[in-house]
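User: Before I run my own analysis I want an independent prediction to cross-check against. Here's the chain; please return only the structure tokens and, at the end, one sentence I can use as a sanity check.
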Amino acid sequence: MDDFGADLAFGWYQPTRIAFGAGVVKEAGLELKRLGVTRAVIVTDAVLRGKTDVVAQVERALGARCAGVFDGVAPDTPAEVVDRGAAAARALGADALVSVGGGSAIDTAKGMAIVLTEGGAIRDHQGSQRLGRRQTPHLAIPTTAGTGSEVSMYAVVLDEASREKMHFADDRIIPDGAVLDPALTVGMPRWLTAATALDALTHAIEAFQAMQRNPLSDAAALHAIRLIARALPRALADEKDLAARGILLAAANLAGQAFNGAGVGLVHAMAHVIGARHHVHHGTANAICLPHVMRFDADELSPRLARIAEALGAPPGKDDAATAEAGARAVEELVRQSGLPTRLRDAGVPESDLPACAEGALSDGAIVYNGKFAADRDLVLGVFRAAY
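Assistant: Structure tokens:
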């Protein structure tokens, strides 16, 4: 039985047009035509541009609508990169952006869209629902199956000086279109396939427990969990399994829609701090922390966690609490099978910094949406120690 009361109220806004299928990248120019733009700048990183043919494929697809390429994207999207990219795009006369890459590329383009439209520097616009108009048109082409950023209103930008992540949340930066081509994800390293899929799994699991959960986010989240649990082992076993990669790409998109409508929680608050302070890949940080947060939440949310366990394919227990624990173990097994670190110590986080990490997590906006109250330093530190 769903735990929605008679006073349930929620909003749902999902404006992104999605084109899905192997080879659909060839239609990127058509997607820009639908948006009525003529001078798009591709936003990507130098490795993807120089070591693969993905960016070249996008350039060919855009044809005369490609005004140039900004390939300065760096992991975790530093603020200076966003500002530099916006200046480059402005100099090229851009009327649209096409992000090509993982979450960092998409978030960089979201930040650039803000600066192109509003002026100033990206730091000037930090916050939630502060923008008064639609931003520069943005077509997202993800090459990883994880962030769901192509359908979310969120962007995270690193302030390198303070070692903190700045958060942007606004309906007006949700990309206008997304091209989901599983063939573009085939070249991912095995660890990145796992880390991005486990990022998507975290989005779905946290959305299903979040304070703002609702029937639409529940539907998207549960199905995303089912898909990832079944497709990730296949994709890890055979990197060229296009069907499995397509399922992961669709699941990441569903998970993105779920958390866009419901929020995330403590796992993301922890992962944001770990990423900013110790440069741990976001998906890896989520994978390490997720089962420990599931156990932290279990005393209040075991019915929901039991449904998550069922979606993961975990064996049922004698009651919801036992089934919830089976779900946490199923996540741990997925992480173990993937070859990712299973403990914070193995990811380079020093034990001496855990108290500072706990303090930092309290300031992260994601923590307020956790389905169980978590905004207490000692509680959060306890979860960090369990994950260590």
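Sanity check: The chain has a mean pLDDT of 96.
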